[in-house]
Automatic annotation (TrEMBL):
It is found in: Plastid, Chloroplast. The gene is GS2. It catalyses: L-glutamate + NH4(+) + ATP = L-glutamine + ADP + phosphate + H(+). This is Glutamine synthetase. Belongs to the glutamine synthetase family. Pfam families: Gln-synt_C, Gln-synt_N.
Length: 429
């Protein structure tokens, strides 16, 4: 992100009462997702939703589209809630649907639910029940109407967070009064790569071959430079519809790679919005017949990796004299570099090489306007004497709950004395 603005005044853990007036994604949004479909003439249809998974005669498809587009609101108060949670890998998103008796405005109005944790790598078969706690709700861009997406975290039947529930620890950090008082803002830049389904090779690349070298693809336009724009645009609109605080999008340096930005968001909201946006992206690529990967280095060689740069500021950083506060925060981050790196995404060592706009994974560095550093400070922040910092270390597959919570913990709750004691302990070992 180029800068951090004031955060949204709308908290997306609530659904506005006029949600019934919203409509699901239209044919123009979804129709453009068809990639190289056989066209034997103009398709005559008056429906709004294109089903990509069904391969049959148009009449059958049209009937199915009509059912998918049924507006339930004139006939029932019941809604469909899609419960979403993070699976056993810590990166995969899972979901299932249930009927709720009436529209809701807050996650506290939703019941807890359960799932088979033995099928997601999160519980043994002999004691497989895992409990879902609804935490944030968003409008459902796929079903429309009053239907919702529900971000959940997972607990044992005894009420303990399961090991892959990173939201619970982050929520504890953001509930500390010192953190609340500093109103931490986050702007997260999520990079991702689109792959061809059968060959798992980047979208737009010749099968078994390579495109021209990097240079013309970043923010580029044209059939030979931009691959997957329709998916990026559909995702952009779907996130806005859902109430996700998405602030922009662009094509990335490696062809077939894209980025979107979420934020500025306050506290735990940042993680909720990133996970909801990832789920929506998975659903869109599913319908487009394209594979999404968050691998931090999907193609080895002279190609950029994929990161999840995290812009961060506190109230003190944004006020007069904030640059000094930023430098103190950076000093603390330098002392906990190893701890942060270990939590910033699997496979990140393949990306953080000191090349392709990254710093070495083994060395902490910071600089003004330097994209080859661990922490970058913008020119405007230096000029104004206040602003934010950008942590460029997180990988594209990082858990936003871990990263946002760790940044707040290190800069606001962690005392330097602990670092000095830890350093001495390492030296004596």
């Amino acid at each position: 992100m180029a800068h951090i603005l004031a955060p949204t005044t709308q908290w997306q853990t609530r659904i506005t009462k006029n949600a019934t007036s919203a409509s699901p994604m239209t044919a123009k949004m979804w129709g453009s997702l068809l990639l190289k479909q056989n066209k034997k003439g103009p398709t005559k249809t008056s429906t709004k939703f294109r089903v990509l998974a069904v391969k049959s005669e148009g009449y059958t498809i049209n009937r199915l589209e009509g059912l998918l587009n049924l507006d339930l609101t004139p006939f029932t108060d019941k809604i469909i809630a899609e419960y979403i949670w993070i699976g056993g890998t810590g990166v995969d998103v899972r979901s299932k649907s249930r009927t709720i008796s009436k529209p809701v405005e807050h996650p506290s109005e939703l019941p807890k639910w359960n799932y088979d944790g033995s099928s997601t790598g999160q519980a043994p078969g002999e004691d497989s029940e895992v409990i879902l706690y609804p935490q944030a709700i968003f409008k459902d861009p796929f079903r429309g109407g009053n239907n919702i997406l529900v971000i959940c975290d997972a607990y044992t039947p005894q009420g303990e967070p399961i090991p892959t529930n990173k939201r619970a620890k982050a929520a504890e950090i953001f509930a500390k009064q010192k953190v609340i008082d500093e109103v931490p803002w986050y702007g997260i830049e999520q990079e991702y790569t689109l792959l061809q389904t059968d060959v798992k090779w980047p979208l737009g690349w010749p099968v078994g071959g390579y495109p021209g070298p990097q240079g013309p693809y970043y923010c580029g336009a044209g059939a030979d430079k931009s691959f997957g724009r329709d998916i990026s645009d559909a995702h952009y609109k779907a996130c806005l519809y859902a109430g996700i605080n998405i602030s922009g999008t662009n094509g990335e340096v490696m062809p077939g790679q894209w980025e979107y930005q979420v934020g500025p968001s306050v506290g735990i909201e940042a993680g909720d919005h990133i996970w909801a946006s990832r789920y929506i992206l998975e659903r869109i690529t599913e319908q487009a017949g394209v594979v999404l990967t968050l691998d931090p280095k999907p193609i080895e060689g002279d190609w950029n990796g994929a990161g999840c740069h995290t812009n961060y500021s506190t109230k003190s950083m944004r006020e007069e004299g904030g640059f000094e506060v930023i430098k103190k925060a950076i000093h603390k981050l330098s002392l906990r570099h190893k701890e942060h790196i270990s939590a910033y995404g699997e496979g990140n060592e393949r990306r953080l090489t000191g090349k392709h706009e990254t710093a070495s994974i083994n060395t902490f560095s910071w600089g003004v306007a330097n994209r080859g550093c661990s922490i970058r400070v913008g020119r405007e922040t230096e000029k104004q004497g206040k602003g934010y910092l950008e942590d460029r270390r997180p990988a594209s597959n990082m858990d936003p709950y871990i990263v946002t919570g760790l940044l707040a913990e290190t800069t606001l709750l962690w005392e330097e004395a602990e670092a000095l004691a830890a350093t001495k302990l390492e030296q004596n070992v």
